[in-house]
Amino acid sequence: MIKLNLFGRGLKLQIAIMVGCQMAFILFGYDQGVFGGIVTNEDWLNTFGHPGSGLEGIIVSIYNLGAFSGCILTFIWGEKLGRRLCMWLAMGWIITGAILQCTSYSVPQIMVARYITGIGTGIETSTVPMYQSELCDADKRGRLVSSEPLFVGVGIVISYFFDYGMRFVGGPVAWRVPIACQVIFAFVVIFLVFGLPESPRWLYYHGRNDEALQVMCDVWDEPPEGEKVLKMQTEILETIAMERKEGEYKWANILKRDDVQTGRRVLLAYGMQFMNQVGGINLVVYYVPTALQNNVGLSANLSLVIGGCVQTMFFFGSLIPTFLLDRMGRRRPMMWGSAGLAISMMLIAVLLSFSTARGYSPTLQKATSSASVTFFFTYMFIFGATANCIPWVYVPEILPLHARAKGTAIGISSNWLWKCVFNHIHWFGIFELTLADSFVIVMITPTLLNNLQWKGYLYVLPQHPSTLIGLKLTVHLLQSIFMCTNFAFVPLVYFCYPETKNLTLEEVDHLFTAGGKHGAKALTAPSQPVQESFRAQALGDDEKLGGRDGGLAAEHAEVMDEVKDSHSV
Questions:
Q1: What is 273-297 written as a DSSP string?
Q2: Where would a tag sit more exposed on the chain, N or C end, judged by fewer CB atoms within 10 A?
Q3: Which residues touch 14 (CB under 8 Å, ≥6 apart)?
Q4: CA–CA separation, 57 vs 436, rounded Å?
Q5: Where would you find the membrane-spanning parts of this chain (predicted)?
């Protein structure tokens, strides 16, 4: 693919890489949010025959199905095509889908158009974080990659208030123009990609060593014999040799243990993005206006305004990891964030349960419903600060080079495949209980909110609608989904996920090469890679203690205490 010298060398080129990746994720956020305000537009409803909640859910969720398909395409061809070409092709899919969407006059056309747009988004989200991870310093990787989900929030907010403003225009322009504006972001990304370099790690892996060396010299503005360039080249080539010690990797062996535990790391990547979606974020992003109007009891106009303000908390929360993730690490924010999300979701459900239908006074219902709005804000802020950003950073950095493209595609597919492990509701006189993926979760959310009201934030009970009655809060907590999954992630992260902050992508491999305990003993303490990451972080801090103040010494002591605790268990 043609590369133009648009951005020179060194810092300018690094900034261009960062901006290109962030612009791609602004588009991602805009795509995600633009339909939230459109589905209530009167002209949109008239054009598509006032679809019921079930059909509306299918129209919205087919975008996710397309994104999952895009991940599959990246899994198949991503490693062959390279990072830049994948980004360029993703924009082509999105532009095609946007054109078809804004010219739609029937339900089949809008569904096909959203599916095509989703394919582009799937390719984009499977490629961009990996590309940024492979073209930045280890001590900046967390901040740079986590800035991408931050700009998802920017895109969502832009789309939300654009939808709100166009609402006063009326007619088909009110919804066709916001959809068409997707192409603006896509063309900007296409322009930027022509001036960006290919990933040097991908080039080395495919034997294009001279090109890879030139890319590293350009990005870090050093000569070929420069210290940083030589160190990176040595690490990358040694890692490739280690990963190829038993020959080219075959995906039929994914569940077999190899020297760098590839299968385990792919599962960790999948699980991290699973956590990104299973806490109920889909409910807030896609349907917060509906939830505020029907469940909280606000007017349609005020619901849209407050919904837009809720989305801004996504942005403000994401500022924290964008500036501090390389100091905070990955593990602890994920654990504390999961606990905070669970508490927020619980309080939303509790406060919305005081309804007149359950015998409470209208005054109490209004007071508690209004109070619940607070926890929509806290939920979105906490999510932005933790579960929104960290999985996007963690997936590409936890994977070995030989499996990074395919493994990232698998990991990101989790984002699209699972919004939560949920009960699929079919209203045919009874509840039919089935497992569901993100396609189903988005599809059923309108029905869920319309029929279960506050209980939708906690659980779905497999009972006949006529027998769906309130239970005590303790029973609700036991059967909750959004809340319980968030709480369950705390021990999962503690025991299974190693810390990767400030480690190069090649150093992460060494966390998985040390032998550990087996059998029952392996289940009584954090996993061996987790313990190795404790040692790596403690060693890294120890090397820096001489040149920094006592605050780092305290951090060092805290890490060492965690190591001791893990061994004492």
A1: HHHHHTTSHHHHHHHHHHIIIIII-
A2: C
A3: 135, 136, 219
A4: 14
A5: 12-30, 58-78, 143-162, 174-196, 266-288, 300-324, 336-355, 375-395, 427-449, 469-497
Helix (H, G, I), strand (E, B) or coil at 4: coil
CA distance 25 to 147: 9
**Using CA atoms, how far apart are residues 548 and 550, in angstroms rounded to an integer?**
7
Lowest mean pLDDT among 72-81, 103-112, 426-435, 477-486: 426-435
Whether residue 483 has pLDDT greater than 80: yes
> Which phi-psi region, left, alpha or beta, contains residue 75 (left: φ > 0; alpha: ψ -120 to 50)?
alpha
Q: For the whole model, what pTM was predicted?
A: 0.82
- One-character DSSP codes across 205-237: HTT-HHHHHHHHHHHHT--TT-HHHHHHHHHHH
- Four-CA torsion 150, 152, 157, 159, nearest 10 degrees: 160
In whole angstroms, how far apart are CA 145 and each of 40, 315, 328, 333, 388? 34, 15, 14, 16, 11
pLDDT, position 429: 28
Residue 360 has pLDDT above 90, yes or no: no
Start-end of H helices in 459-549: 473-479, 482-496, 505-511, 528-544
51 and 35 Cβ atoms separated by less than 8 Å: no
Could you tell me if 383 and 337 are in contact, meaning their C-beta atoms sit under 8 angstroms apart? Answer: yes
Cα distance between residue 391 and residue 412, in whole Å: 9
Euclidean distance between CA atoms 314 and 146, whole angstroms: 13
